[in-house]
Task: structure prediction
Amino acid sequence: MSGPPCWPWTSRTESSPSPPDSDALVERVGSAVADVRAAGGTIGHVRVAFTEDDWAAVPGTNKSFGAVAAAKMLHDENPASRIDERLTPRDGDIVVRKIRYGSLSTTDLHEQLRVRGIDTLVLAGISTSGVVLSTLVDTADRDYRVYVLSDGTADPDPETHRVLLGKVFPSRAHVISTTELRELLRTT
Result:
């Protein structure tokens, strides 16, 4: 892996159902975060949360977020939109707030990564078919080297999760486990 790795993580919010065994998922992600930190990588935290102005700017034509805005869900100050306390950001981490599925389209994350010289990303999050898929496509299109943690992602639909990890993601990213990440970090 060249360049310092970065770990964008999106917290589970009130609109994201908990996957089965979500505590184990967060534990695995926490271990991977510790591994990336130990290797000198940068950790990025991405959360979805809206302000009053954000809700007002979402058009009704947006199938997903039009309903979120109309219902005034995921307010920026709502505890459900915060990053899981077990993955609390530390000094030096990147933290951004987004208002769409992807982690880059409504944030300055791309600029923060470029300023730090980061060209390699390790993605984890909920949901595989929303947040992870959108972020993967966008970052691959921006020429990042992308890894997706197979056991650091989850989706409310297990079949969709399986198809994305097994058939869709491999054309744009390296799909690896948290154990494989640990080994990769040791050899770079």
About this structure: The chain has seven helices and six strands. Residues 10-16 have pLDDT under 50 and may be disordered. The longest strand covers residues 145-154.
